[in-house]
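Much of our argument rests on the idea that a fold can be written as discrete symbols. Part of our work consisted of pairing the sequence of a single chain with a tokenised description of its backbone. No coordinates are needed to read the tokens, only the vocabulary itself. The record that follows shows the chain in one-letter code together with its fold in token form.
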Amino acid sequence: MLLTGPQVRAARGLVAWSQTDLASAAGVGLATVQRLEAQNGMLRGMTHTIWKVRNALEQAGVIFIDGDASTGPGVRLSKPLSDQG
């Protein structure tokens, strides 16, 4: 599945992370997170870097949702907020 910049921004918001928090959790630079989030469409960049960002957000409880013919891509939490760490 491919990710979009808006999905990364939304996912980060769901887990209440700053861009710095995401960069740290993913093991990438702050400028990398800023560059990825600034993209409006599908993320372009090093595949391994995008995977690291996605993996960090999934470990924090985010589920990435593919778009289809009637809806766009999105994000949601894997558990209710009350169950999040």
User: Anything to note?
Assistant: Helices lie at 5-14, 19-26, 30-38, 47-59.
